[in-house]
Amino acid sequence: MRLINRRPDRSLWLILAVLPFLALLIAYAAGSAVRLAENPADKLLPGLAAFADAIDRMALEPDKRTGDILLWVDTGASLTRLVAGIAIAAAGGLLVGMLAGLLPLARAALSPFVTVVSMVPPLAVLPILFIMVGLGEASKITLIVIGVMPGLIRDLMLKIDDLPRQQLIKAQTLGANSWTIAIRVVLPQILPRLMDSIRLNLGPAWLFLISAEAIASESGLGYRIFLVRRYLAMDVILPYVAWITLLCFLMDWGLRAAQSRAFPWFDRARTGQ
């Protein structure tokens, strides 16, 4: 059997999925052991005991100064900003994407502008946002919106372009107006694509959030990472990075599960079943 036709069963799939993580863990443990053997005070690759102490200090014990459990306070602050930014970007992307994708006049007015805006590096406008909007929550959420929404708009426009033209013609033949076509024909078909686009933009959204929190914030996962870096506190930084990765994975998994439940036909169409 050719390799391109060989598919792993469930057990083999799980083994293959775990192997890279196991290899990374072994490589880290070996590197940490070598460095700590040479210098027990080494901070670059702390041992597992140092990680356990840091996690206990950040996630389980109240802070001596504020009385808050720092990991959960930081997580709540970051997730609030992230969810707000993605929600606004998704709503705006859906609205503008449908307008520009369906209406030729709207496309002529919006498509060139969206294309140009999507080429602007979002982090380059961060100082402008701080000057114009201030250092509060609005600037951080706005950065996520600016970074994510243009890509969502362009992706939805392409999806609408890919819809069979016959669907729109048949709907008009049956007497549907533009509003009915948008709501009954186009919207159900692009909503699962919107969820895919959001999944693909989760990583960039976290990048924009952490960058904004690192520069001007008093709480948040990015703020904490950049706060402790001056002490070379890798025992805190690495667990925070792992926690951010886990949160991003769970958000991706949640969107994927919601998509499969709400639009089962989309999965079947994608896999050709």
Textual characterization of the structure:
78% of the residues lie in helices and 0% in strands. The model has no long low-confidence stretch (mean pLDDT 89). It has helices at 10-38, 48-59, 70-102, 104-118, 126-133, 137-162, 165-173, 178-200, 202-215, 221-228, 234-262, 264-271. By secondary structure, it is an all-alpha fold. It starts with 9 loop residues before the first helix and ends with a helix.
Task: Give a concise summary.
This protein has 273 residues and is mainly α. Helix content is 78%, strand content 0%.
Please outline the helices and strands.
Blueprint: H1 10-38, H2 48-59, H3 70-102, H4 104-118, H5 126-133, H6 137-162, H7 165-173, H8 178-200, H9 202-215, H10 221-228, H11 234-262, H12 264-271
Helix pairs in contact: 2-11, 3-4, 3-6, 3-8, 3-9, 3-10, 4-6, 5-6, 6-8, 6-9, 8-11, 9-10, 10-11, 11-12
Question: Can you tag this structure with a few keywords?
Answer:
single chain; 273 residues; mainly alpha; MetI-like fold; 12 helices; 78% helix; globular
